[in-house]
Amino acid sequence: SRCMNLQELFPRFSPSRMLSNQVLLIVGQELKQLISQSIEGCRVFILVCSGKINLSIDSRSYNMEENDFMDVLEGVPIHFKSCSDDLHAYCLFPNYKFARNSLKLFRPGPENYFLERTKFPILHLTEEEAHRIQQQMVLLKESLESLQHYYRNDLVQTYFRSFMLEEGNLMFSRANAMTAGNTLIINKKDILLMNFMKLIWENAITEHGVAFYADNLCVSTKHLTRLTKEAFKQTPHEMICKEIIHHALDMLDNHEISIQQISEELNFADMASFSKFFKKHMQVSPVAYRQLHLS
Q1: Angle (CA) 81 168 150, round 5°
Q2: The dihedral sign for the CA sequence 144, 145, 150, 151
Q3: How far lies 80's CA from each of 31, 32, 64, in Å?
Q4: pLDDT of residue 189
Q5: 82: phi > 0 → left, psi -120 to 50 → alpha, else beta; which?
């Protein structure tokens, strides 16, 4: 079945669970609404406090139980299969722009973080670690529920940042620990993939061709394609396109920016080229997408 994106999830939940199409927090039994759904294109954090969730990440099956914590990176598809009736969990979906804005000047995590999350997306936490992460989720939940709070937006952003600081601390404290019975060894291939991901985040707006990235990494496009397909089940071109789509969606949410301006910002030859690209990836034109998401 087709993967949903975050924009399609928002209408299914109460306004007290979200901040203007930027971040969504699903709590407890509300997660049952995600069963049989596949979601892609956004970061996903899940903390299970009690009960069980069965899900698949990039087609690999996982069972999450008490004190399990999951961080799935953007672009990795997640499918929710089932959950127990006694489930108490928090599921946090920040969109790309919200996460970026909240984490400006944020000190980066361990070097191998992104690849470790790709290989081992679920961590089993100690009672104390789970409690610390849960505290942040509760603060985030309470700030989202304060619909009349004058500084609601700022509070939500602050508590999301606070949550990410706790997660960062967790990752640093485990940087050299065993994960799922394996020690992650960072080799040249992993470093090259990390550098490729960083290059995409920094350059996708202006550089759409795979050759630019391969040249910067001093490898052939064929070699880069083999590595990304092996690690992420995606070609470099698909990964670049996803990043461009992220930027396009952010800009389309701002109704003051015309579609012509967006095509120029994203370095397309003209509006028609951008519209064709967008429709190929989103199944709707930029104009139709904007009309569908008018707040």
Answers
A1: 85
A2: negative
A3: 9, 9, 11
A4: 76
A5: beta
